[in-house]
Amino acid sequence: MWPATLLLLLLLLLLLLRWRRGEARLEPSGRAVLITGCDSGFGHLLALRLHRLGFTVFAGCLCPDGPGAQRLQREAAAGGRLLVLPLDVTRDRDVRRAKEMVLAHLPERGFWGLVNNAGISTFGETGWLPMEKYEKFADVNLLGSIRTTLAFLPLLRKYKGRIVFMSSIIAYFTLGNGIYSMTKAAIEKFCDALRLEMKKFGVQVCIIQPGNYARSTKIQPPLSAEEIWNELSEEEKAVYNKEYVQERANFFNSILSEGSTNSNEVVDAMLDALMSPAPKARYMVAKLKEKALVFVCALCPTAVMDCVLSYALSKVKLA
Fold first, then answer.
1. Is 280 helix (H, G, I), strand (E, B) or coil?
2. Is 7 helix (H, G, I), strand (E, B) or coil?
3. Taking a C-beta distance cutoff of 8 angstroms, is the pair 126, 134 a contact?
4. Active-site hit among 134, 159, 172, 180
5. Does the active-site annotation cover 180?
6. Max intra-chain CA distance, the chain
């Protein structure tokens, strides 16, 4: 009896969600969205798309005098409603000033969305990276998103808006970039808590999980074995050999070279998260083989996946 009842309830819920997603989309005019990390990549493209749709866009840029920010400035001059903000998400002062700017230029329908897009990436085994790098990655990718979210929560609750976070399928597994994977896994858990807590206020929280878009975003430039070797401490050099480092660099760079160049797939998901009457909690935008890897990682015992991934990662022996 219970399995049939549960199945019926799930079916009804799916039908309800499908019906809600078929409702009219949001009217952008008079609504504001703040996006972090608009210098390039997904944030840059999203700012342009939202502006053309009619939103008032606050584009946070780490380098407000850089080429990406300048292109956004030209767009703003042509159509208005797009303001470029100097925004380093690791600085409380920058976040405060961004909020002041938003409040000073808030359109008639208020603050609709916050898109936590700013992020950095690098490659390297755990012991290869200094503590300062771990602190920087946690500050940008994790604490930066939390910092902006806490600052804008009062506005989001007031206007029953949306919060969108940029995660990655790498939150489910790691292939030589555990430092990046760590921050994305933490963001996932932060969002899970926030999504449940915000329901009572009518605020919806969405996670975007792109696959490999390294060629689109340039978030991770290729690394040479020489660069990696020169950054290693003497203790690490005593453990690893140059052949191993070269093989790992080749492996990682080959993954980067396979990245998709169609950033609009991810931007489409971000738009749906902001504009759909019934947005998804998670949007996985990835190739079929990447989705399959996530599925297998979720189902297989850890010991099995450890064997598979460790075999795939390196064929070079250390001794």
1. coil
2. helix
3. no
4. 180
5. yes
6. 67
- Report which of 297, 61, 37 is spatially closest to residue 164, judged by C-alpha positions: 37
Which of 47, 53, 52, 54 has the alpha carbon at shortest distance from 30? Answer: 54
Packing angle of the helix pair 264-275, 41-53 (nearest 10 deg): 50
20: pLDDT strictly greater than 60: no
Q: Ramachandran region of residue 123, left (φ > 0), alpha (ψ -120 to 50) or beta?
A: beta
Residue 68, pLDDT > 90, answer yes
Cβ atoms within 10 Å of 292's Cβ, excluding its own: 11
- Beta pairing partners, 113: 33, 162
CA distances from 79 to 51, 74, 83, 306 (A): 8, 9, 11, 52
Which tens digit of pLDDT belongs to each residue from 290-302?
A: 999 899 888 889 8
Beta strands in 42-118 (DSSP E): 56-61, 82-86, 111-116
pLDDT tens digit sequence for 149-178: 999 999 999 999 999 999 999 999 887 789
What is the number of other CB atoms lying within 10 angstroms of the CB of residue 26? Answer: 18
Q: What is the pTM of this model?
A: 0.89
Q: Residue 138: pLDDT band by 50, 70, 90 thresholds? A: very high
Q: Do the beta carbons of residue 229 and residue 242 sit within 8 Å?
A: yes
The phi, psi pair for 75, rounded to 5°, reads -65, -40
For residues 99-126, one letter each, b for 16 or more C-beta atoms within 10 angstroms of the residue's C-beta and e for the rest, the string is bebbeeebeeebbbbbbbbbbbbbbbbe
Percent of the chain with pLDDT over 70: 90
More confidently predicted of 317 and 75? 75
| Residue 305: alpha-carbon gap to chain centroid | 25
Phi-psi region of 268 (alpha: psi -120 to 50; beta: other; left: phi over 0): alpha
Q: Tens digits of per-residue pLDDT, 189-200?
A: 999 999 999 999
Which two three-digit tokens encode residue 219?
Answer: 């978030």
- What's the full length of the chain, in residues? 319
Given 3-state DSSP classes, what are the helix, strand and coil percentages for the chain, each rounded to the nearest 5? 60, 10, 30
